[in-house]
Amino acid sequence: MSTQAALPTYEQKAIVGEPEVVEDEVIPALAADVENDPAWLALKDAAVALQQLQAPDGSVPDEHDGPAARRHVDTLVASVRALAPRFPHDAAYLDALVGDLLRWSAEGFGVPDFFDALVAFQPQQHRVDGLRHLVVFPMYTQNGSSNRFVEAVLVEVIWPEFIGALETEYTNGLFVSLRLVDFTPGYDTNSAVLFPETVAMREVPTFTWGAIFQDREAARYRRVVAAASEITKLDLPADAARMLTDQALTERTFVMWDIIHDRTHMRGDLPFDPFMIKQRMPYFLYSLEELRCDLTAFRECVRIRTRLQERVDNGDDLTAVEHDMLQHAVLVQYAVVFDRIFRFAITGSRVRNYDGLGGQLLFAWLHRHDVLHWTDTRLTIDWEAIPDAVVALADAIDRLYWESIDRPKTAHWLAAYDLVRSVLTPHPASVWARGLPDEVLAGPPSGFTNAVREDEFPLSMFFEALEKKMRPVIASTAGIRGAD
CA nearest 241: which of 339, 331, 340? Predict the structure, then answer.
């Protein structure tokens, strides 16, 4: 089997419809080139300097550092006020931000509380392509810094017209898609999200948005997949190869993937809190949940492609928006497979790496279903068979969830483990693989979780060899932006 048999592509036909129009074009223009504004540069320098005085909880514990901290906060306040006219859509947030900064300074720099500013920041209300936001919070950054330092980020909304049309079917009013423009050190890392729960605050509000930096996702995808396909001698189909040379195309593909993925956490036959907040479970449960959401995005893109391609085959003309939707529905399928098997599987430590495990599981599933081959030191994929194989794994996870609604929690955990080990080989010393002893089975759920090895499902020999060759490439993606 060969990779020459690519996923079915869309056929170029005459496009009917008006050209894409960017709404509120005056507002995005106000913040053009703001990353070179002296006020932004002063703000960023002040935030970095303030970080040197902060403890991990965000406070400034040394009283001798108080005068310097106040000077840095005064610079932050002056800079925010100077920049505010360039962000009129965020006026309420920037006013609240100034208030939180001044109060924190006046009260002596204890553990920061930016609740008021967080509640006022509502980026999901302004999903306009190219619109920029100035974001300043004391916060940790997921997959980045665990310290709640004051971080400053300039971001730009990615919201192509076809995504707005897609959301009529895949409603997700909390989802915000962003591009990194400039940032302080907390985002010079692997972090590709901006989540409100990372902010230092006195109480937890109802969260109304969550943001993903699709430019970073796309840029590291392009770099990793290009290197991995060369190392494995994988012959990429034309559509997949095009993504590796077109950052904007790949960004839009990731927006489509993520908007469906994100909403899936709240939909389906869910035997637990969909975001598993404040729950302690064996990490392979998180693997299956993240993989379920990715494979749902894959499945839905197969459905979208089939529906629109049938119209093309019947001689119907697609609008420009439908044409974009069809094109990106094909590309999402490549993105899900390649990102999972090439980046997720070998990124990060082996300590409860649930995304890594999900990548391993997808690779092994495709191999066992005879659509992925590693023969004569060359990777080949039967792309015509890929959709059915991937959807079959999605069905298996959905079946697990459906059955687990009627099971006790720990019985669900055991069933989930059986699904994973039906595809992947556990560590030879695994207590779970040998069978948990009666005292654990009869005890509290914590005993089950404690018995899981930190690397319950080690890398296969294929991935061990690939990881060694890919290690410098993976490391080089920390802090990457679309312009890199």
Answer: 331
